Amino acid sequence: MNPVKLDTDPAAAVSALAHAELQAVEQPLPEDRASALGRLSRISEAETEARRGYRTG
Prior knowledge:
Region (Disordered): 36-57
Helix content: over 70%
Number of strands: 0
């Protein structure tokens, strides 16, 4: 976007800032998603192990 237009058009400036903020927020999402999926898989494994222990105990 043209920097001169941002200086003269407040709506364009707000739009550009909102877009930049959205990109900043979305950037770490894949890393967080992978971390969350890893934790969920460990919970599932722990539940399976607990069931095995309960049956044999």
